[in-house]
Design goal:
alpha/beta; D-Maltodextrin-Binding Protein, domain 2; six-stranded mixed sheet; three-stranded parallel sheet; 12 helices; 41% helix; globular; periplasm; TRAP transporter substrate-binding protein
């Protein structure tokens, strides 16, 4: 899995060093790909450029995709979906937790102890989308998806046991994380965008956060929170890369065929591999830093947390209004992905 990511990194690097690019045909379609997040994130540094290169090459000159990371088309992570829908950009990196009520089925992956890696969670989520189990995509095409996680706990004070969470003001994203923080005895604090977590911790407004370890350096949380627990696997948050369906339909045939080949499962796997690699590197860096403490909870402590969190699982482990048990569907999709990998 990671060997494939290394090969992609080499391809992107070689492409960046190429001195000249072919002259685009006059009928070349240009698309804009936006992200509010750092150009140095795994997504924007390697995975998205790899997707862009693959699609452009396969389009045989009929498509050019311009990449705008770091908020250069719009800094607010909350506005990225509306930017796609309003035509400000053609594709964007959209954190679904910032759009409450949209794509509700993807929230099932926020449940604890479900997925182990970004790759398996993303591919399982895409499989559910492909089966028509994810709503709100009538006018949108899913170019790729990340289920970033599993989320963990980071704080300014020790996290040796459940009792250490009592009353701690933890930043959370969305209702499921809010409920999980409460069930663990913490005080959930919402409406804090990820780029503002570190500042709010430094100002004493937060005492910690739920966050995927791979993003601790991207959002400077590692500078503000020095105590970590990674054993609980507190779910994965959806990040989607949507494009308007009518934009796709208007593409030249070769450009459309290129999207058919490299969007969806291919791009989702590349994104997941990049985040899993970033996660492993961030964990290793923190473990090697004497200023940080990573707590290893015992099996009994993990089971205690699992029991406390069971009510949030039970809320999903039943048929929804459409008669679909999304928790069972997510588990089935994960098992199929694991068997195929």
């Amino acid at each position: 899995m990671l060997d494939n990511f290394k090969k992609i990194s080499m391809v992107v690097g070689l492409a960046a060093m190429t001195a000249a690019s072919p002259v685009l045909a006059q009928d070349t379609v240009r698309l804009r790909f936006a992200s509010a997040f750092s150009p140095m994130s795994a997504n924007n540094r390697v995975s998205v450029p790899a997707f862009i290169k693959a699609v452009e090459d396969a389009s045989e000159g009929t498509l050019k995709i311009e990449h705008y990371p770091g908020g250069s088309l719009g800094k607010s992570p909350v506005q990225q979906l509306s930017m796609v829908e309003n035509g400000i950009t053609d594709i964007a990196e959209v954190v679904t937790a910032y759009t409450p009520g949209r794509f509700p089925e993807l929230s099932v992956f926020e449940l604890p102890f479900l997925a182990d890696t970004n790759v398996e969670a993303g591919l399982a989520a895409y499989q559910m989308y492909d089966k028509g189990l994810v709503s709100d995509f009538d006018d949108l095409m899913l170019v790729g998806i990340i289920m970033t996680g599993p989320y963990a706990l980071d704080a300014t004070a020790p996290l040796a046991n459940i009792d250490d969470l009592a009353g701690k003001r933890l930043r959370v994203a969305g209702p499921i994380q809010t409920e999980m923080a409460s069930l663990l005895g913490a005080t959930p604090v919402g409406n804090v965008p990820a780029p503002q977590i570190a500042e709010n911790i430094s100002r004493g407004l937060l005492e910690g956060s739920m966050m995927a370890p791979g993003n601790l350096y991207n959002f400077r949380i590692a500078d503000a929170a020095k105590h970590h627990v990674w054993d609980l696997k507190l779910g994965s948050v959806a990040v989607i890369f949507p494009m308007r369906r009518d934009t796709y339909e208007k593409l030249p045939p070769k450009a459309k065929a290129a999207f058919d080949t490299y969007s969806g499962e291919w791009f989702t796997r590349v994104l997941g591999e990049g985040l899993d690699k970033q996660q492993d590197e961030a964990k290793a860096k923190i473990e090697a830093d004497s200023e940080h403490t990573v707590y290893s909870w015992t099996d009994a402590q993990i089971e205690e947390a699992r029991a406390l969190l069971q009510p949030v699982v039970d809320e999903w482990n039943k048929p929804n209004d459409n008669g679909v048990n999304l928790y069972e569907e997510a588990n089935a999709a994960l098992e199929e992905v694991r068997a195929g990998n």
